[in-house]
Design a protein that fits this description.
With about 375 residues, the chain is an alpha/beta fold. The chain has 13 helices and 14 strands. Strands 7-8-9-10-11 form a five-stranded parallel sheet. The chain has a four-stranded mixed sheet with strand order 12-6-14-13, covered by helices on one side. The chain has a three-stranded antiparallel sheet with strand order 1-4-5, sandwiched between helices. The structure holds magnesium ion. Magnesium ion (MG) binds next to loops.
């Protein structure tokens, strides 16, 4: 099988839900890059990447200008070799960031072809360890919501069968964060997991002072308390407070995860395949975490169809985030959370094909 065509589509899709806010961003739209690999065998591979901040056009250009000339004529069975060649085609300016995001979309399309050739969904192709995947919800708990809205939303999620919800932190006064967590804990009771997420807004001193008090509310984890580049600060915080630390959604390399894990700076490894170099590197990070007996809980906003399949095939990947539910219907064969668990897709492939009607309506490039 040889790759004959590389097509891309860039979309800007509005969220059909209340405006989302955290300590760094206000989200009203999500950008998507669909990568399509056509082959002389009649099979078509679909990959995707995404961003809730604008600028994914740079990734599209990387696919068109750097990767497509390498891909044409290649056998996608040589995925690892091709990915390496693509990586070094622009590594002097793009070892991380949008070029890496672009290459992950290409890598998924090559995996999609391998799974379709085997006529299996990704999780069966990899070898499964579970037939459904537990979910937790981030589709609420946003930073600018009132305390009453936080409680109403958390109770609604619990009534739908979720037993774990995430609340954003990073208000200008961290004491207000603590009051909000206390109110949600009181409302949901002690049998529901509450996660917290600062989106990198705190200093180490704030992490120790205010993160140190989250144990009073039995918080499951403190996520991205500080900027992700500084492993040493996270290690110091992880050793100073009782609440476990979760990081990963803005970590781009297995070596950065290795440094976090070896330093004891992370307890929940939130490896996101769409930031790493696709599925192969995600599997390497998951295996690394397993060797330290650490759970992997992949970060997911729109890429849940991919991550539930990886979770179904990875024993230490015990939980997958659920977010941006209003975008579920944009995928061919959507999947859903019911009674706190994701069902698994059954179609052959990795499941990242966006419906044609969505592309037609929201295409910007
Ligand atoms: Mg987060």
């Amino acid at each position: 099988m040889k790759i004959t065509h590389v097509d891309t589509a860039l979309l800007r899709v509005p969220l059909q839900q209340r405006t989302i806010t955290d300590s760094q961003s206000t989200v009203t739209h999500v950008e998507f890059l669909q990568v399509v690999l056509k082959t002389d065998a009649g099979l078509t591979g679909y990959g995707m990447n995404w961003s809730y901040t604008p600028g994914l056009r740079t990734a599209q250009i990387a696919v068109q200008e750097n990767y497509a000339p390498i891909l044409i004529g290649k056998d996608p069975a040589f995925r690892k070799q091709i990915t390496k060649e693509c990586f070094f085609s622009n590594h002097f300016i793009g070892r991380v960031g949008s070029t890496r995001v672009a290459l992950a979309a290409v890598e998924y399309a090559m995996w999609d072809l391998a799974c379709k050739q085997a006529n299996l969904p990704l999780w069966r192709y990899l070898g499964a360890c579970r037939d459904k995947v537990k979910a937790y919800s981030t589709d609420g708990g946003w930073l600018t919501w009132s305390q009453d809205d936080l409680i109403r939303d958390a109770m609604n999620l619990v009534s739908r069968g979720f037993d774990a919800v995430k609340i954003k932190l990073g208000r200008p006064d961290p004491r207000e964060d603590l009051r909000r967590i206390a109110a949600v804990r009181k409302a949901v009771g002690d049998h529901i997991d509450i996660m917290t997420d600062v989106n990198c807004a705190w200093t180490l001193a704030q992490g120790k002072q205010y993160g140190g008090r989250l144990k009073d509310y039995d918080v499951k984890w403190l996520e991205e308390p500080m900027k992700p580049e500084d492993v040493t600060m996270h290690a110091e915080l992880a050793h100073a407070i009782e609440t476990p630390i979760a990081v990963g959604e803005t970590i781009f390399t297995r070596e950065a995860f290795r440094d976090y894990i070896a330093a004891g700076a992370v307890h929940y490894v939130q490896a996101d395949s769409t930031k790493l170099l696709g599925i192969d590197e995600w599997l390497e990070v998951a295996a690394l975490a397993a060797s330290y007996n650490l759970p992997v809980v992949p970060h997911t906003n729109v890429q849940h169809k991919l991550h539930v399949q990886l979770a179904a095939a990875t024993p230490n990947c015990v939980l997958v985030e659920n977010c941006y539910e209003s975008l579920n219907e944009m995928w061919v064969e959507p999947i859903y959370v019911k009674d706190g668990f994701y069902n698994l897709p059954q179609e052959p492939g990795v499941g990242l094909r966006i419906r044609d009607a969505v592309i037609a309506e929201h295409r910007i490039g």
